[in-house]
Amino acid sequence: MPLASVNGVKIYYETHGEGEALMLISGTGASCDGWRKYQVPAFAKHHKVVIFDHRGVGKSDKPDETYSTRGFAADAVGLMEFLGIARCSFIGHSMGGRVAQWIALDYPQRIYALVLSSSGSGKFSASTEVVRGLPLKQTEAMVKQGYEDWWAKHLSDADFMFPMDVREQHDELMRERRALAQGAMPPLRPYLRHVIARQQHETTDLLRNIKAPTLVIVGGKDVNVGGTGNHLESSKVLAERIPNAELVVIEGAAHGYMWQYPEKANSVMMNFIDNIEN
Q: pTM for this one?
């Protein structure tokens, strides 16, 4: 099992393909498994794709300590150093996009291109309520349903991940997502530390300092108001505040647009990255 010694912990990683490096950064509590079916085969045709588990999830170490998106960014760069990668492109989904923002801010020399997928910067508007601890509604649902059942539904049969019509018409996709969630569910305590790290993320006033060519991509129905607000609106703010950023909205899709429309999503992201690298 490939493990890298990074910042005092062992980080699980995989590499696929050859070419310019492309690192895929997962969201809150998610292992790297979610990238493997749809993104890795497509991207590895022309890139050296790196996927990994954040500390606290998957096959990586799970220290009982405070986590932060900035710390996750340092881990990602530490993994690059371990693999001998001087510079690469990044795709970060959800919390992974928040991690990628810190890479762009703290390690600008490491980036070719930046893709922020269904993400946000923290308190992106005066009217946005951002709970800096555990979101009450989410935590209450977790307690009532039980963590295992809540986790599996959270990544499959939930409005924020897939619109109702998609869930009703795509049984195979829903079974696949539920099985994936059940197979990679993090222990409760590290997961809650991931949630807190996401909730405490704040880069809104720093977005103007991001110099990397940036694509912001989001589902047109990613409007569920969770702990970090409406992702469609937060993505628009990312695109407005990051200099020269591009915004692409995948209509008819919510937070799980990369699994609902993988060919469309992959094409948009790879065209952007390839144009920057070339």
A: 0.96
